[in-house]
Amino acid sequence: MSDPQPPLTYAAAGVDYSAIDPAKVLAQRAAAGTAAQLERWGHRELAASRGESAFVWDEGPRYRAMVMEGLGTKSLVADAVRPLSGRSHYDALAQDTVAMIVNDIIVVGAAPQVVTAYWAIGDSTWFADRERAADLVTGWAGACEAAGATWGGGETPALSGIIQPGTIDLAGACVGVIEPKERLVLGDRLAVGDAIVLVESSGIHANGLSLARRVAAGLPAGYATDIGDGTALGEALLRPTHLYPRLVAALFDAGLDLRYLVNITGHGWRKLMRAPRDLSYRLHTLPPVPPVLSFLARAGGLSPQEAYGNLNMGAGFAVFLPPEQAARAVAVAAALGLAAWDAGVVEAGPPGVAIEPLGLHYAGDSLGVRG
Amino acid sequence: MSDPQPPLTYAAAGVDYSAIDPAKVLAQRAAAGTAAQLERWGHRELAASRGESAFVWDEGPRYRAMVMEGLGTKSLVADAVRPLSGRSHYDALAQDTVAMIVNDIIVVGAAPQVVTAYWAIGDSTWFADRERAADLVTGWAGACEAAGATWGGGETPALSGIIQPGTIDLAGACVGVIEPKERLVLGDRLAVGDAIVLVESSGIHANGLSLARRVAAGLPAGYATDIGDGTALGEALLRPTHLYPRLVAALFDAGLDLRYLVNITGHGWRKLMRAPRDLSYRLHTLPPVPPVLSFLARAGGLSPQEAYGNLNMGAGFAVFLPPEQAARAVAVAAALGLAAWDAGVVEAGPPGVAIEPLGLHYAGDSLGVRG
């Protein structure tokens, strides 16, 4: 293990949320202004879904949801690791991308139905690498099936001058169904006393990769560095993201009262206070930290406050439900091979997330993902 | 008018469809293999929509369609023209992008319902330019409303190392409704003797911009060059793409029997033979060529065969319907302010497009957009 590097803040790693969010707010307001167009079909938007992870509208017999998501920069890690591993890793990246999409649509209670792909490349030679292209296609189809979705085509533009030569921007969209309508989850039924069940991540998932690249660049052995359990950093980073649609479907099928769901991504555990409610969230139990994340936090010199505020730290998904149902939720997850923990409780009080065992606290204004 | 440059082929301008299409075919086949997932809801895919511009599935009381599309590289033209014009032009680019999306979903007979945005940037400072960000947001919302769609949110990732600094990749997805189900258009009812009605484009739309950038780079005055009608090349290129959803809705509402629809984009008039049918297409009438396209063809040294085979040359959309309904279709378009022409006829014979007034012919194997 090398010496820790100077601490890397997220702004230093090239992600400055403060410069993006005002435009997001502007866009959310303009988007809300177009809602009346749905009236032509007798449908109506659920205004409360604006700012949630997926847009939801009411079609009468069912709700419908739609989401757009992208992988981020994880493909750059795969490109750098390929000479070491001898594998393209694009099957894993395809699953990561589909996971980013479907794990976001399920949080409103939707089952993903149709997924479309957007694969933008810098020059048309990208797809001439048949092994890599085949891995991407196979991984995408497999992840759609594992999520219960049909792959409905997509677009593969060559964008010379916009996308860097040799690289690819992986993204996609999904339309989902909330049926029966009682499955709608927008956080309005979240209550003081509800339990917070955290579900294991598979590793870094697809957030924190800019940071990981910076850390790898500063290590003498780079992506070949042993993270402490015999695994090379590159291989560990490229473990594909867990797909949670089957878990959410199983929780519903078990009759559990899911009051809020969070896909833990770019804002780490701060995202646990995503519900539009004045509530406080206290975590009393921590899942084990995947070796790749503890390595990254150490090597990157991240404080626990930075690490838990930006990385999933072992918790990829969170389920909020009545406390007497927490054990059942943990058992349902276990039956699907996913470790889960009855890890926290919803409390009255000013919005914030407290991670008791580490003495950490995030105030309500530290999230900033809403308008 | 400067001397013509050496002819530019599309491969020389950085777009090599032959390197992309095999992967598209692979993806289409893998995607088709995921169709059974729809059975959970009692829905089924329309296999005939695989390879069409939009994916279509049967929900019982209605068909549903979904599409993913992107702008391509037109934003690079706006970035280069802004110092000359003093405007960001991102309101126009937003309309271009929405047009690429919704003009593709209407060809299967769908009305666009919900549009999501994907705006990927190279660094988070892109949105710090408030004027440009506001233009993009305003233009996107306006285009969604003009297309009859609700804007359902989206994603704005900063992709350092994938997207070039200072540039943006504009794309989006749309879900649409085909209702009543008789409006489904997949080309199976296309018949010998049907008329081909061509509808005006507004200019270059969003295809051929790589070529336009190469041409501009070779002109002494660049984007400030007068294209012959007093308009600067840059301004002319940035005229926003026509939105055709209202036209298609009006044609249906007029009771016309729409047998096939084509959004004329990257393959120019070759796309008129897009229907999966062994039919031949003869054009006897040409719409006037927009000055920006005749200038581009001349300055780029494109042969008529290349120009009509890659650019819209004044025809942005094509409607195939019984010949006795052609005049009515032209009148419906005129009422919406769109010039249209009863321009051709569907004939028996080997697949191909013949442009009679120019003595041009494209053989069936020159399209290559299907698996």
First-to-last CA distance of chain A: 42 Å
State the largest interface. Answer: A-B, 87 and 87 residues
Structural class, judged by helices and strands of chain A? alpha+beta
- CATH superfamily assignment of the largest domain in chain A? PurM-like C-terminal domain
Number of helices of chain A: 10
- Placed side by side, the strands forming the largest sheet of chain A appear as 8-10-7-11-9-12-13
Q: How much of the residues of chain A is beta strand, in percent?
A: 15-25%
Shape of chain A: globular
- Estimated radius of gyration of chain A: 20 Å
State the CATH topology of the largest domain in chain A.
Phosphoribosyl-aminoimidazole Synthetase, Chain A, domain 2
Short description:
The structure is a homodimer of 371-residue chains. Chain A is α+β, with helices and mostly antiparallel strands.
